[in-house]
Every structure is written in C-alpha cells, then in structure tokens.
Give the backbone structure.
Amino acid sequence: MTSVSTLNTESTVAQCIRMIHAGVDYIRLTAPNIREAENLAVIKKKLKEKGYHTPLIADVHFNPVVAETAAAIVDKVRINPGNFISSKAYREKGKDAIREKLIPLLKICKDHGTAIRIGVNHGSLSEIKMEQYGDTPEGMVFSALEYLELCEEQHFDQLVFSMKASNTRVMVYAYRMLVRRMVEQGKAYPIHLGVTEAGEGEDGRIKSSVGIGTLLADGIGDTIRISLTEEPEEEVPVARKLAGYFEAFMTENSSSGIQKYPVPLFDYQKRKTSYVDKTGGNNVPVVVAGFPRTGLKTSDLAEVGYVFNNGKWIRRDQSADYLFLDDQIPEFSLPEGCGGILNYTTWTSVQEKEQFFPLFQAEAYQNTRNKSPKINFILIDPGEVDFLKKFVPDKDPTAVFVLNSQDFSLYDIRKWFSSLIETGSSVPVILKRSYTFEDSEMIRLAAATDLGSFFTDGLGDGIWLAPGDNLSIAETLSISFGILQASRVRATKTEFISCPSCGRTLFNIQEVAAKVRARTGHLKGLRIAVMGCIVNGPGEMADSDYGYVGAGPGKISLYKNHEVVKKNLSAGIAVEELVQLIKVHGDWVEPLHI
Ligand code: SF4
C-alpha cells in the first residue's frame, strides 16, 4: 500500500513504480475523500503511460460516494463494513441502510468490472457489532457475512474478504471462522490475508509470519500483504519470500494425510500438559538456547541473557531457560533457574546433577533406568509415531518431548501432534528446529511460520531454535522470544503496534516509532501503538494499553486504552509526555543498565 498522499501524483507514481519493481501484484492507495479518489485516474493514466499496468485498489473508509468514484477508475475497491455506513443509519434502518449505499456502488462495479474487498478490521468494528458481539472474531465474521449476503442479493460476486487484526490469535480465528461459515454455505470467495499494524523490523516480520503462516498452513489465503512500518517496497520481498516458502512445500507435501486436527480452531486453549520442572502445565513456554562451542566461559552467557557481574548472575527479560551444552560440562555454576541440557552419555558422568539434565534419543530413553529425577528430555522426530504408541503416556512424570522437526513439513508436525493427542498423553513438547537458509530474513519468516503456528494453536511448551552458520546464538534467542510474543504466549518486551502509514499519515511514522521504541522498548508486556492518523488510528489500535496518534500537522494525541487523555500536543514533546502518562498509570519501570 502506498504511503504518500494520493493527491501528490508525482510521489505516488514514483512509489508505485518502486513497488512494481519490488514485485507487487496489486497496489492499494488510500482514498479518504473525493479529490483523492478522482486523482486515482491521473495516477493510473501516468502509470500506463510509463508502461505499468499493475492493478490498483482504492482503500475507502467512511464515505460510500468516494467508493463509487473510485470504483469507476480502479480494479478493486476496499470497503470497511465497520464504517461504510454510520451507526445511526444502521440503528434506524438496519440492513436497509447498508443496502441503500451498497446498490449504487455495486452497479458501478458491475459496469466497470471492478471487484470489491470487504475488509473487516478487528479495531474498527461498527458500534453495533461491538455492542452485540464485543470486539470478537464472531463480530467480525457476522459483519463480513452481512455484506456478503447483501452483495449476493444484488447478484454481485466479484468479492474478496479480509479479517485483519493486529492480534494474531483474533486474526487467525476470525479468518478460520469466516472460511468455515463460507464452506458450510457452499461458498468459496477469495481471501486476502494480513496482520494489521505489525510494526517494523524483526518483530513486524515475525508477527506477520505467525498470523499469515498459520492460515496458509490451513490452506486459507489467496493474496497476502505484509504490513510493516517501513517503506512499502520493503514489504514486497518479505511477502514474496513467505508465499514462496509455502509454495515450495505445498507442492511437495500435502495436508491430505491429516484426517483430523484435534485442536480448537476458533479459540485459544492450550493443550493440557504436566508440570515438569518449569516446563509444561500453565508455565509460559520455555526457551532453549544451544551452545555448540567448547570452552564455555561465564562471559559467553551474555549471549543468552545472563550477565556475570561482581560475582553474581543478573538475568535479563529475554534469558534462556535451558542451555543445550552438547557434551561440554562447564567449569562454573550456571545461573539459578537456568538448566543445562547434556547428551545422555555425558550427563551420566556429571557428579553434581542438580543443574544438569539428560537429552535422550528415544531408544536410549526406553532402555535405561538412569534418569534425572527432575526432567528428562527425549528427542523425537515427527516420523516417530510408533514410539508414541509404545510410550505409555505419563508413566514418567519427568518426561518432556523435544520434537526435532528439522526437514519435516508443518503438515508432518500437525500429524504428529494429532497422534500424540490421540494417545491422551500430557507429556510437554518443546519444538526444535534449525535452518540452513543463507538469508537471515528467510530464517525468521520460516521459523515464525513453522513454530509460531503451533503456539497459536495451543501446542508447544517450549521452543529450541538451533544456531547455525547464518544464525548466531543471540539471534536464535531474539527470534524465539519474538515468536512467543507474536503468538501471545509469552511477553518479554513491549509490543509495538504501529501502522504502516498511508496517504493519511501526519508525521514520519518510521522516525517516531523508532523514538517511541527507544524510550519504551523495555516495558515488558505493555502494548504501545503509534498510529499515523486520528481517523482510523484510535479504532485500529484495538487492544493497546497506550496510543500515540497523529491528530493534525505537528500535533499528537495520546491515548490510554481507547480514551484520549492528552490532546493536540506539540510533536516535539509528545514522546516524553507519553513516558509521563505511562508513569502516572504506574506502568513505568526504569530500564536495566548493566
Ligand atoms: S492509522 Fe491512519 S495513517 Fe495509519 S495506515 Fe491507518 S489510515 Fe493510514
């Protein structure tokens, strides 16, 4: 989606060309008013003159007449059921109010061969749907189906649907629910996938991949957008890589072998597992970091979140819960609360076993009585379904599976979990994976998809991303915690919700998001939104704790949840005012300087 004003023809055309060269299939442009909608014709003409014919989509909120204007020009118009008509009109006339505004738009679309995207957003559900359903996936689905019914009533079927949210769980459940309802009704409209306001950098990529990847694995999704607070052309290669990753294994593998995927698909329920040491049960998923090198020193543990200072260990928010030490027994005590995992044979030679635990191959585990009284890790791969049948579930309350999914597809892992659940086992499962991609971004996207989708589905009690030639130990940790945070199962840092910006944006969002991140990035568990405009920003930041929203040129309004608490502040002081606001509400902690 373009991020410059649609009235600025030159900048918009230049941005579109950069996006086309980056590989987009469609370009969406914001059309807040009639003037912008009309200018789409000029932009389209200029692009054609330069030899570019990429389909254009107009993004319209609040004004059906703008949608009508755009529909005569572009290839697709996105409308948002949350604001296509006013709540007042809906209260007075119900569906007739929508019908009245939709019929003229559908007519223009039919005349010009224009498609419509019914783009529901979690953050901008209509007042009435909020009253009826709360801000739930059910409310989103109802909204979409109401428009679908009215379009079909007018014999219009050139429709695409989206159910975006910045909360990956809400987004996944809403899309699944919509598709289920469509299937029940014998309908199969295309689906556009996206996680809104995913942010930037590694977090934005991971969050997008968790949400979009989970759905692509379900076989849902015809187009995707990675929504980053970066230049629009930077979104494109990320989307291409993610789509390409699926294309590769969708052709080689198939989900047809999964007769039943016994996990709740429409709400979050963690698989019930036993408490084993600090793993399983209602514990947050643990993070395992691998240390493949020898000659371990205390200072090496800084890479995995532990700093040795004045004879004491200091633990950071993102420190590994277990360290895989392979066959090296360190000559110092590990930090309290940090367990060392050793290969079984090496573990048998350790005298002081309190801090160290064995990693067994499945066969060795079955054939020995020499086990840790606390926790025993059993390495298993998704092909070993037979072992599950032989392994008497829960006979050993110290057992934890380490599912080494290397070289297995997401479908294989789903099948393995299905078999595990069928046995009734409550043995916790740590998901282990390594990647050999040379492209470090590809590793992030693949890991977030392969592993994040299982945490979203309530499976997985831990994560173990192995380092490799193109992935340092510190990076495995950062990606692991990022995946857990994006899947909403473990918060270890501030969650930033920032819009990608568009023609409505009132400030340099990338610069401001970086400033806000620098000041507040240590506030574990808080959700802070940075939104470009007051028109859509407050609605779309949905479940944020605090919001920084562009209110006018050079002006910022600050929000606590959905309430505006400081209006029209000068942009120069707004970040510090945000910090003050967080302090007043008791959510501030000083950053840890080590
Ligand atoms: S919040 Fe406003 S500025 Fe940001 S992308 Fe949405 S409409 Fe554009």
Summary: Residues 499-502, 504-505, 531-533, 535-537, 540 surround iron/sulfur cluster (CB under 6 Å). The CA atoms of residues 384 and 416 lie 8 Å apart. The radius of gyration is 26 Å.
